[in-house]
Structures
1.
Amino acid sequence: MRRRDFVRSAGLATLALPFAGLASPRPARRPNILFIMADDHASQAVGCYGSRLNRTPAIDRIAREGVRFDSCFCTNGICAPSRAVILTGKHSHLNGVRDNSVAFDGSQATFPKLLRAAGYETALLGKWHLQSDPTGFDRWAILPGQGEYYNPDLIEMGRKSRRPGYVTDILTDFAADFLRSGRDASKPFLLMLHHKAPHRNWQPAERHLALFDDAVFPEPPTLRDDYATRSRAAAEQEMTIRDHMTLESDLKLGPPPERMDEAQKAAWERAYGPKREAFRKAGLAGDSLLRWKYRRYLQDYLGCVAAVDESVGRLLDVLDETGLAEDTLVVYTSDQGFFLGEHGWFDKRFMYEESLRMPLVMRFPGRIRPGSVNSDIVSNLDFAPTFLDAAGRPKPAAMQGRSFWPLLLGRRVAGWPESFYYHYYEFPAVHMAKRHFGVRTKRYKLIRFYHDVDAWELYDLEKDPLETNNVYGDPAYERVRRGLEAELRRLQAFYRDSEEQARRLVRADAGK
């Protein structure tokens, strides 16, 4: 199939003439929604969030012309569960996807299904990672599993084919074609573009392989964290840059990926061959090896982010060119945060800030005040109700999230939640992050680790933003601790979860 065949796959739509699908110059009653989600894009690698590592001018443009959310959190910091929460507006224990091993039940209500029933044209591109086929979309083209960076396979409405090129660029081409000429002009649209990047093992596009070769990256203060006041969970994970990041694959001391063609392999060797030789000659060990690993990690991770930012810029330009910008709600986010050396780690999963926090910027000209900054607590649980609200549709009673559409429009909402509930389940598994749940408020965070560990952690984020001082046993915080424990029980009851239920799931998982 050619790329343009995506826009009329399975006979579901007739390909429009070039630019025949341009929106009316008058504001639409219901906005189009362009939802762009990266995979593992840390807020600390986004310019508008104060990044000291890189620049993201296109993503920053969305914030400059719209709103930046500073307290957007993920309910379960791992790929598939976050995606299921976004689709359903329900916590993991209710939508059925508690970890990456479970197939998503596509028969349940999702916001794309509800928008489609309300007259929206719906399309999905990129990483799906939910094992079952997508439902609720007029057309879809997804990456199998995690997908590949170079010459990836795509499954388009059930048909699999290999695409030459770099995955971020390929997905952006599909999205641009849809926006330019592949839509039904009589309908508003939902286009969900899910990038693979910057997921591990961080393979930048050819043009970005050497982009950060001369960069100097400030080290996070906790790169050499000793976890002195923390529970066993912090020390017993398997996600440190020092001990668990691989030289061959993660840090590119091995051969080029087999999937590459000869020209791509040649570019890879030009970029990484000198690094490989320099490493072998240097004989690094101990702290000097850690510093080298940290720098190499960021060079590739940020190289992947660069292509994502270019993608965002291309699509914003297409919206301008086609006259769609004024009628389109643009969303940029990530499925969760990511550790970029904080606590010595890479990956996500833990309820600590770098993993918990999701970047979220949104733009809707004429409705969202440019340059807005919102500090209210929102989460991926709230995305589905918000998009339905934007389209003038009520959320189903089963959805547990709350629409923050009024916040986007600059309104204050009485009784807006001041606490947030988190629950992570995938243990024992890759990276060995312990199972835990917890509550976060504006100032405090309480975490309960369970399964093969019995521990609590409490952080005063105002005094200890790096989360290095667990004050759970400090008598000075006894009143705070009791209040947070009560709030945790309240949230668990509200979301129909509990520690007893969590332990039942442990036993059930062990019996599989």
2.
Amino acid sequence: MKTNKNAKSWKEHINQKYGEKGTESREKFEEEFETFRIGVLIQEARKKQKLTQQQLADKVGITKNYISRIENNASDIRLSTLIRIIREGLGGSFELSLDL
């Protein structure tokens, strides 16, 4: 099996593209990635429950446009709104952890 001598690990790629952990550019990337992940998780849960964006928005009392912006990583989301989407809209529970 041939190996690519230029191949990099994911960690090496991220370090090269966004800088080492603790740098401003890396922190910005990590924050944006977490926001992206939240949007994907909400979208997957919504689709699993066969809800449209409008139906989810109606259950939570927000706009379809806001749900769309969250799912497409185009909007910051307030923690209280995130909790409402998960609990009231999707019938789920919210857990938070902190890694230091």
3.
Amino acid sequence: MKSEPECRYDLKDRVAIVTGAAGAIGTGICRGLLRSNCRVAATDISRDRLNNLVKEFHNEFGDRITGIEIDVTDYDSVSMGIKKVVKIFGCLDIAVINAGIAYVSTIKDMDIAEFKKLEKVNIDGTLFILKELATYFEYQKTGGDIILISTKNVFSPGSAFGAYSATKAASHQLGRVASLELAQIGVRVNMVAPDAVFSDGTKKSGLWQKIGPDRMRARGLDEKGLEEYYRNRNLLKTQVTADHVANAVLFFVSHQTPTTGATIPVDGGLPDATPR
């Protein structure tokens, strides 16, 4: 897959943390930040996938990227992880909350234990990171940026996708509340809502590996046909990539406009999912 052109934003001397960094979207966000001269702490729960990500970028970006293992469902892990970022790079300016998981089920057939797993990652994980960042940014007194990777399902939920839609909606709402509370200390909180990001080059999306088989069976499509289906359903008839998501993140953190509490859809145009 052809990558988007290199971004022209200059984030030199700024430090970012990205959760769920080893997935397709996380990888694209890390690459976009690194290309913009940012220093990046890539975090994930999987040490092996994290090591592979850092190794992938190290030759081009050197010690501007480091990997830190964080379990977003564990508040102590989140707190210690953020402290490690500051210890390594000296400060923290940007946080991208990207970690999330999915589950396919109708409400009638919902496995409550599976729903609670999504609550822990998608809701508790968002809350823990926002809580720790609020404390840190208040102490640092230099403002900052928080970008929450939301989803079109917040605005247009899908059938048999209630657990994901509901928990991501709660995460999104926490981000909106944080924008109200943190503006007074100079912290901007914004959301990016992508749809149908299947991969980052050769790295497949974990979310789509989870939900793809169900969607393929429902529509009688193979993997390539499913990607084509989602491309054709958006107004621009375009394939949404991890680089597109990264570009939306970079727009917010480069302060092109005085904006907080906003959502950028990255979906090729879906009228039903337009933020209201």
